[in-house]
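Quick start: read one record
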Amino acid sequence: LLVSSFFYLPHLIGLFLGLVNFEAGQFGTLVFGGFHNDPNYLSPDLLFSLLSQLFLLLISNKNMKIISIINLILTIALIILTGSRSAIMTSFVILFLTLPLLKHIVKSKKGLLILVIIFGTFISSNLFLKNDRISYIYDRFTLNEKSASLKENERFGVWDIAFETINNG
């Protein structure tokens, strides 16, 4: 868990050192793809790191919990920077499914503060970014031309062919 909780770190260091680009994506808004140059390929690294960090909160000592909280905040910020809908949805699923496991943390005031910090990072990271990241992500989910419309890409054609093959096969 400890090693996998730091999977986000090479991408973060690359961002700070300028080794990886923070470029305009499909809709002209800046997206972060890490060393993969694609937010959708970067997302599994970040999500696996997020899950590892949450489990480390359960089993680690006080010092490691502090490190895990810092890692969580940085990982969540990178997930938001990707602008990937699947990463955002999966992050919420991970947080929702691990919340019952973290219930003993919530019983204390420190634990409640930890959860407030984690969830507050999703919202407050918008204040630290130059563009309106939360609105961009919201638009990706809700606006037809920016969300999963059939005009967005060629996926619909591939899915149609696969569905027809399954039905006729």
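The first strand starts at residue 22 and ends at 24.
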